[in-house]
Amino acid sequence: MDFLDPKKQRAHAIRIMVGYVLIGIALILTTIILLYQAYGFGVDRSGKVIQNGLVFVSSTPNPAKIFVNGQRYKDDTNARLLLSSGQYTIELQREGYRNWKRAVTVEGGSVERFDYPFLFPTKLQTSSVKGYAKLPSLVTESPDRHWLLSQSTVDSGEFDLYDLSKPKDLNKNLKTITLPDSAFTKTQSGAVQSWDLVQWANDNRHVVLKHTFQKNNQSTYEYVLLDTDDTAKSVNLTSAWGTNPTTVELRDRAFDQYYLYDEAAHTVTTATAKEPTPKAYLSHVLAFKSYGDDVMLYVSDETAPEGKANVQLREGDKTNTIRTLPAGSTYLVNLTKYSGDWYVAASAASEGKVYVYQNPVEMLNEQKVSVPVRVLKVPNANYVAFSNNARFIMAENGNSFAVYDAENNKGYAYTLKTPLDSPQVHATWMDGHRILLTSNGKTTVFDFDGANLQTLVDANSAYVPLFDRDYEYVYSIGTANGETQLQKTPLRTANDL
C-alpha cells in the first residue's frame, strides 16, 4: 500500500508542492501580463514590446466611418481604438456630411476621448420662419434651448415665443405675448426703443431685460422681469428697487433674487422680490461675477497696495485674496466648478494675460500662496468665458484666442484668419466644445483648439445664432429677397431628422 510508504508519501508531497508553486508562478505571470496590457503594453509583429494607448471616438450624428492615417478603421463610431504611441490623423466621414479631422498624439498607457466631433451637412437648406419690417432688437433663447424669444414689433412690448421642441410646427405653436403697461415705460412718440437680454432665470420661464427708451428727449433705461408664461406677473424691477443699477445679475440664477451693481459708486447690493429695497453687500468693486447663492469673485482696490487691485473670492462670510493686479485697468473675472474643482479666471486687460486657478482657496490654505495652473496670453482680452460643460475656458480679443482644457491640463493659442464682423464684440461658446462667431456675414464654428473651422449660414453679426436642444437646427437673423427674416436651418440631412 503506497500511502504507507514514507518515500512515496514524500515524493507525492513534493509533487503537490511543485504543482502549487507552478500554479502560483502562472497566476503571477498572468496578473503581470494583464496588468501590462491594462497599461497598454503589447508586442508588435516583429516581437518588439510596445505600449499602446486607448482612443475613444464618437460623433454627432452617429455612426460615422473612421479613418486612421488615411486607412479605413474596422469599426465605425462609437469605437475604441487601440493604437501604439505616436502621431496619428483621425478623420470621420458620413455620407451627406462634411468630414471632421484632427491630428492626435497617442501616448503609451493614455486614454483619449473624442466624444465631441460634430459633422455638419454638406448642403445647408435655409428657410424663413418669420419676416420683419424692421430689425428686432431682441432675439434670445432659454437656457434649456426650449424657447426662442424675439421682439415682435419694435415700437411695442410684444414678443414672439417659439417652441423649439417642435421645429416642424414653429408657426403653428407661435405664441405672441404682451407686457402689461405697468411693467415698462412707453417711449415718447416717434422715438425708438430697444430690448436687450440681461439674463434668463434657471426656470426657463423668467427673463430679465434691459429696456432702453426715450423720455423728455433723453435716452434712459430700466430693467424688466418678463414672465413668459404669465405676462401679467411681469415686473418693472427698476420701479420696485427704487434705483437703476448699471448692471444686474440673478443670484443663483433665481428670478426673484438679484445682485445690483452701481459702476459709479463701485457698490454691489442685493434685492429680492419679497424685499426689493437694496441692501449693502460689497463696496469698492471694480468688476464681479457671482456663482450660486453665496460665492462672489470680484476685483477691489479697498485693501490693495497703492497702484494695485485685489482679485478676491468671497464664500459666505469668508474672503480670500487670490491675486493682485495693476490698478487702472479693465478687469475680467469668471468662475465655475468642473468635476468637483473650483476654477477661477482673472485678468487685467493691460497685462495681456488671463490667470487661471484650480481650487485657489485650498492652495492658499495649504501653501499660503495661490499659483495659476495656466496663464492664457491674449493682448487686451475683452472676453473670458467657460464652455457650456465648464471644461474649457476661453480668453479672446477679436480673432485672437487662448483656451485652457481643465480635463487634460492643456492650453491652446491661435489666431483665426477670419475677422470678427462688427458690431459683434466677441465670440461665444456654441456648446461644450465649439466656439461660434460671425465672420464675413457667415456663421462660423470651430473646435476649442481652432480645428475644424466650418462656415455655415448667412447671419447678421448683431445677433448670436441659436440652436435647439439637440443641435438639430440653427436659428439666425438673415436677409432674403430684401427682407429681414428669422431663419431656420437643419443641421442634419433629411434622412437623419
How does this structure look, described?
With 497 residues, this protein is mainly beta. The strands form ten sheets. Strands 1, 2, 5 and 8 form a four-stranded mixed sheet that branches. A hairpin with a 3-residue loop joins strand 22 (285-291) and strand 23. The chain is globular. It starts with 5 loop residues before the first helix and ends in a 7-residue tail after the last strand.
CATH topology of one domain: Immunoglobulin-like
CATH class of one domain: Mainly Beta
Report the CATH architecture of one domain: Sandwich
Please bin the fraction of helical residues: under 10%
Radius of gyration: 29 Å
Strand content: over 45%
Derived structural class: mainly beta
The mean pLDDT is 92
Quote the distance from N terminus to C terminus. 83 Å
Outline type: globular
What tags apply to this protein structure?
four-stranded antiparallel sheet; 40 strands; 497 residues; Immunoglobulin-like; mainly beta
Offer a quick outline of the entry.
The chain is mainly beta and 497 residues long.
Which helices and strands occur, and which strands form pairs?
Layout: H1 6-38, E1 41-43, E2 49-57, E3 65-68, E4 71-76, E5 79-84, E6 86-93, E7 100-106, E8 111-114, E9 127-132, E10 139-141, E11 147-151, E12 158-163, E13 175-178, E14 194-200, E15 206-215, E16 218-227, E17 235-236, H2 237-241, E18 247-250, E19 257-262, E20 267-272, E21 279-282, E22 285-291, E23 295-300, E24 308-315, E25 318-326, E26 331-338, E27 341-348, E28 353-358, H3 360-367, E29 374-377, E30 383-386, E31 392-397, E32 400-405, E33 410-415, E34 428-429, E35 434-439, E36 442-447, E37 454-458, E38 466-467, E39 473-480, E40 483-490
